[in-house]
């Protein structure tokens, strides 16, 4: 049975693909979507998969803004 989380995840991943095609894989705006996907995966208790998205977003932000940026 498909839940609202499954539906949200589908839309977030689709949105991420579009953002990556237009802005590039390492654009800071992409990190918002990565975080959203991580949150949905966390709600679904898919911790390890969520961490992949969270860590990617963190790497992008650190490379753009530096590790000391709030």
From TrEMBL:
Pfam families: TPR_12. It comes from the Eukaryota. SUPFAM superfamilies: TPR-like. The keyword Repeat applies. InterPro entries: TPR-like_helical_dom_sf, TPR_rpt. TPR repeats lie at residues 31-64. Keywords: Repeat, TPR repeat. This is Uncharacterized protein. The lineage of its organism: Eukaryota, Amoebozoa, Tubulinea, Elardia, Arcellinida.
